[in-house]
Specification:
The protein contains 5 helices and 8 strands, in the order H-E-H-E-E-H-E-E-H-E-E-H-E. It is an alpha+beta fold and 169 residues long. It has a 4-stranded antiparallel β-sheet with strand order 2-3-1-4. The chain has a 4-stranded antiparallel β-sheet with strand order 6-7-5-8. A hairpin with a 4-residue loop joins strand 2 and strand 3. Helix 2 packs across helix 3 and helix 4 crosses helix 5.
Length: 169
């Protein structure tokens, strides 16, 4: 009987820890308008987690079981956004394929560009990247190009600092 109780106790503890709620906060996410909030929310919900977005603080609280939260941390950059996690073990770990090397031009895709404020965030990332001089991002663009003489990984980092993400094409 003791053995059965121990097995049941071990099983219930394991089941509880697997299904325990996980909660993280992403800060610095580009949430300039309702389109951005909806984009992040959709990406998180598609992963099976839930999102609470606060545009004023540029933050997103993601809750769910650990597997769905991890999946959401893959879905958020795929939707074109980036945010810094308050949990070093559960964070967005995607550099979009950018190499730490100088380039004259970089074609990027996957960035959420629903309005003029999104375009301004790209322009700010260009301004913050040494050697980057111009971009072709437009509202609704699927891809855009950044030109100059700049480090590709540094541009992605600057884009991240502005709450957006992109993938090298």
């Amino acid at each position: 009987m003791k053995t059965l109780l121990l097995i049941l106790l071990a099983f219930s503890t394991t089941t509880f820890s697997i299904n325990a709620e996980t909660k993280i906060t992403l800060s610095g996410v580009h949430l300039c308008c309702k389109g951005c909030v909806n984009g992040v929310t959709k990406a998180v919900n598609k992963a099976g987690a839930s999102a609470t977005c606060d545009a004023k603080t540029a933050s997103v609280v993601i809750t769910g079981d650990q597997a769905s939260v991890k999946k959401a941390l893959t879905g958020v950059p795929k939707a074109g956004y980036y945010g810094k996690s308050d949990n070093k073990d559960l964070a967005i770990d995607c550099q979009g394929g950018a190499k730490d090397e100088k380039v004259k031009s970089l074609t990027l895709g996957g960035t959420h560009l629903c309005c003029g404020k999104c375009i301004k965030a790209v322009a700010k990332a260009v301004d913050e990247t040494a050697g980057a001089s111009a971009h072709t991002a437009k509202k609704g663009s699927k891809t855009f190009e950044v030109t100059g003489d700049f480090n590709a990984a540094a541009f992605i980092s600057a884009l991240h600092a502005n709450g957006l993400h992109a993938f090298v094409k």
